[in-house]
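Table S5 (text form). Sequence records supplied for joint modeling of the two-component complex.
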Amino acid sequence: MKNPIRLGLLCLGLLCSMPSLWAADIPVKDGESIQDAVNKASPGDVVLIYPGTYKESVYIDKDNITLRGVVEEGKWPVLEGEGKRNDAILYSGNDFTVEWLTITHYKGNAIMGQSGNNFTIRYNKVIDTGVYGIFPQFGKNGLIEYNVLSGIEDAAIYVGMCDNVDVRHNEVFDNVAGIEIENTRHALVENNYAHDNTAGLLVFITPGLPIKTTFDVILRNNFVVNNNTPNFGAPGSIVSKVPQGIGIVVMAADDVIVEGNIVSGNKTAGIVITDLAFITDISSDPESEPNPDRLVFLDNLMFDNGADPVAEVKALMLTQFSRTGPDILATPGSAQEQDNCIINRERYTSFGVKKWSECERKNTSDVLSYRIPGGAPSEPVTATNRTKLLYQGICAGCHAYNMRMIGPPTLAVQALYRNDAQGIADYIAEPHKVRPDYPAMPSQGHLSPELRKDVAEYMLKVTK
Amino acid sequence: MRALLSGLLLLPVLSSLAAEWRLSEVCPAGFRPEQGRCYLQSLYGEYASLQDSGVGGLKTGLPPLREGFTPQQIDLGRLMFFDPLLSGDGTLACSSCHQPSKGFADGRGLSVGINGQLAHRSAPSLWNVGFLKRLFWDARASSLEEQMEGPLYSPIEMGNSREHLLKSLNESAAYPALFKQAFGDSAISLDRIYTAITAFESSLVSLNSRYDLYANGVHEVLNKDEIEGMNVFRSFVARCAECHTPPTFTNQQIAILGTPEPDGHAFDSGVQAVTGDASQRGGFKVPTLRNIEFSAPYMHSGRFETLREAVAFYTGGRGHAVPEGEKLNLHWHIWEPNLTDREIDVLVAFLKTLSDESFMPPLPSAVPSGLRPVVDVKPN
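The corresponding structure-token record, covering 844 residues in total, follows.
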């Protein structure tokens, strides 16, 4: 062997460059705290949660953390809110995964995201909990699959202001809304079983939010059956205005494709397409475009819808001399316009689709997923990144390398301190005026001594 | 003889006054120079936000900032901001209602304008104002330039007129030279006045609070109560973050809350008065919560003296303060959170972690008009 030491070092170098090898499994047993494990975890780690009852809320503010339940002989880890805790799981980091948990009795949401790209939420049971079950917001590239949710007073699965999400193979029942796609783009909702909700699947624009569009949504191959539960949404909530007995609602959303769904037994209507005038008692938002544009209605199996419609729908249908609700209802206004299209319209009972054009597109078989190949951008914060981030974000606002800004040039600081990082670290905790022709420096004493030393060392090495 | 002597003594003073003013050549704290213009340097510079909305969670990018002004423009704006020459009678400056020591607000429910007249609403804080798409509580202005015409020319605020403003600046000894430094020639136009003041206002950036450190991975800077407060803040029970969304802690939308007016005051119809849209009755712009600790009292009329009272409003019950006979389209997130006393306390503790005045601008000890700069107004 030519040079075993060199070869050994090469292997070591390769090993060190593979972060997953250093990732840890952190077990949590009944009686222990999931949050403690999360606090200890580093990006790449998996928190393994064993069967038991966990009475806590868990917050994940770091990247690339997985919460994975361990199910043993039918026994699940259960997050129990006891009706007094706010949310079960709240994440803000990228690359978050949560799976194989049972969540029940929380007041707010079961699983909520506030930004965070590349999320995976699957194989969870969410029962009798909160306002929303699964609620990612402001996330890009997500997967919500194989979850079962019931007993929720607003939406079981609520995708809010996200891009590129697949929602598939979930069962949602006994909720007010089964699955909601709100102010979101590029969502694929397929193979879900939505039954016994007030309304099964909803795709819409909520006015008054900072991201204002919903477009490019596919509702495909879902079972949307018997959604006739009386509305038990909270007074004042938007969902409380949804009439019972509707399979699918499309409100103001654009470029929605409805294909291959089995929609039956919904007593008001199979699918309702409407504009923002549908929701009353809400402050208008002139920047929300209210019209549902370019709906594409392909082959769906619809039957037995409209057996006992709510009063408003009954009134509409009476104008067509019918006493039952339709498979397809387009409310007066832009929902009835010809930018929407349908194929084989003669199969369905309908209202308001006479002007709809004939679809050119016949199927969505070219779309396998709406997620982004390779994922959405997400760079985890490591220790070196963190120091650099602090330097760039705070120090560089006053110190440039070789010119005067509000503070002296970094070069001058380097010359003054030479290798004395500790000296800088001490100074910035309690800065005193050194140069009369510069303003006073704000104290960085709220940073720990270690952090100040890290940043000081970083500053001494800056070269541009 | 005495007159001649005093005249001689005055001469060097006068000439040095004219030579005294030199606008800053470096960008203010937090801004780096690029080809002679100043751009924000912040912890959030590398982050994206969904659909470039500038809202989201902890590590989310900022909305666009009014930036790219020269150091001289910013500095000229700073001097004018504190200069009572800009009011009709030379007694009030912008800083009379936007006082540095009071979070660039004025510590009053209703501000006091010229001749002691009361304004109609509470002066908002100017921290981070450069990120806002719309200005005023009722969102009626869509730029800082448009906004400043409000107080400048309002007969109950600064009581000035365009003609008088231009005249005073043009006739002042020092300003023409300063405009030359900032704009290349000494022409003083309304546009240039507004540009300079906008440049200064948008340099008031506060993004280095302890919350910001936490958000960027330095978790040790918040204590347990503050973290608990942050978790209540973003919970779906209190729902604060649904409208006061990070990183600016506003989603910049209009919201109808049904907050009470001060006793004896008529109902403020908010955005309805601007748009005529009855569905927006009682609607106001969601303000930022950064530096909120310094800008009491709270809401459009300053009805709440303390943070605790402002927070407690949201758990008082949906519509509990809406006057008899009023019907408002209350925001759907105003519901029954049933917050405990402890939750309210930790929420207040968290709100105080949003404080950061490290980029407080230098406060002038003199202004170009020779009048006394308005800095640290004593409370009435």
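Note: Chain B has two domains: 11-41+66-201, 210-354.
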